[in-house]
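Cross-posting from the chemistry board since nobody answered there.

I work mostly on the small-molecule side, so proteins are not my area. We synthesized flavin-adenine dinucleotide and want a rough idea of how it might sit in this target. Sequence and SMILES are below. Is it possible to get a predicted 3D structure of the two together?
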Amino acid sequence: MKAIIIGSGLGGLSTALRLAHKGFEVEIIEKHHSPGGRLNILKKDGFTFDVGPSFFSMSYEFEELFTSCGIKNPIKLNELNPLYAVYFEHRQKPFLIYKDLDKLQKEFENIEDHLISKVENYLKSAGRLFHDTENLIIRRNFISKTDYLLALIKVPLRHSPKLFRNMWSELERNFQSEELKIIFSLVAFFLGSTPFQTPAVYQLLNYTELKHDGYWNVKGGMYRIVENLLELLNQKNVSIKLNTEITGIEYSGKRIVSVTDQDGKKYHADIFISNSDAAAFRGQILKRTKFNTQKLDKMEWTLAPFTIYLGVKGLCDNLHHHNYFLGNNFRQYADTIFKSSVSPQKPYYYVNASSKSNPQCAPEGCENLFILCPVPDLRFKTDWSDTNALADNIITDLSSRINFDLHKNTISKTIMNPVDWQNTFNLYRGSGLGLAHGLNQVGALRPSNKDEQFKNLFYVGASTLPGTGLPMVVISSKLVTERILNDFAQALA
Ligand SMILES: Cc1cc2nc3c(=O)[nH]c(=O)nc-3n(C[C@H](O)[C@H](O)[C@H](O)COP(=O)(O)OP(=O)(O)OC[C@H]3O[C@@H](n4cnc5c(N)ncnc54)[C@H](O)[C@@H]3O)c2cc1C
């Protein structure tokens, strides 16, 4: 039985491995010139950069992927310790965020009293929520909205007040210092919202980062994940066709017969899996009214990335591996950043210096800096003619905050604005993480991983179940494989 996967992101590659293991003949068709989707690599001027993701939590989902396919996990991980550093504008020294609460307490000496007991208490409740929902909601399929509702009512009632207050007020109930509240609230932006709008249930992400699994990155760079998967897929005769964009479908009754590329070439298979955005694919390729441009624009999307890849001469001693640079107007910034039509004057941004733990990613005595500034998506800010000005603004700010002249020492510079992200990987309106995770866009309310009309069309990736981020996308490949096997196991036998 043949499966075609449209897109070679982590979702597409993981699904290919699972299906090939189950005996499917698999072909992947990818628009870009290199596989991996957002989890990609940029090699330039002697530097190697991770294009998108730089760390992840719930590392055991990768273990599950490989072991379920009878393979020893080939990915070698580095645990992040400290997890990250947070620089506030008013403070010279960054806060280093540790899982070890004794060390964390020292960082907040004279700032937050009784930090250990407060954090333990906060994480205990977040941990209960995580374990009460992980298998019940996150790691499972829903065949209908009723099925989802039945699962929701099994979640212990003690968590329900957290549906009605936001993450910020949950943090205010637990902590006093503004800095600590801001730091713990940063995870809300990963979900596509602000802590002032995100329901408090998402404090479970604080549990995953600070207690449960922590944060990890990959020895040799994040792209080793893709390289390892490609080696395994090659052994299983999975083929990948690059530089090929699927632009249409042909169907007969309730089955897709073939998909068509930009040159009109047709690709036939028994089943099709879209790793292209699950909402946008339904609108742009299947032409579904429910997902037309107007409806897609009304959905909630995560912020767009503005990324700078900087190869610099010299070592930036004041930088850690993972760093957040924040200003002094958090509430106002959070309130305006999503819908602004102009670039931020005083941007908040994230910097990853992966050469600190992977020296082979930069020439000797140099650093490779990845700078990510979340910006409004292309619904709100369409004109990116100020790309170089925004990049210069960020580089100037970073130089002064780490006391290192980055302008003078730059050897290599590449910038990707939201238009580039949109065009390179078909990200809807340039949204970096796909559909957001408000309560109206999760579980059975997120675009399903099984098509509503075609019996042999499925979806995997960030905008279908369960959500965005590397471990979630690996879970997504498990869920879609379960769906496919459920529907097609007999045909395979
Ligand atoms: C800047 C940035 C930083 C991030 N950092 C992190 C992080 O630190 N940790 C983390 O866990 N997550 C992070 N994420 C999120 C993470 O990258 C995504 O959730 C995940 O990689 C999505 O994988 P995917 O398989 O769903 O989709 P994608 O990676 O988008 O893959 C989809 C693939 O399909 C291809 N495609 C699309 N349409 C077509 C078509 N019509 N025909 C053929 N091919 C097509 C695309 O070119 C792409 O290769 C980050 C994302 C960004 C943008």
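Reply from a structural biologist on the board:
Welcome over. Reading the output above for you: The mean pLDDT is 96. The longest helix spans residues 115-138. Happy to explain the token format if needed.
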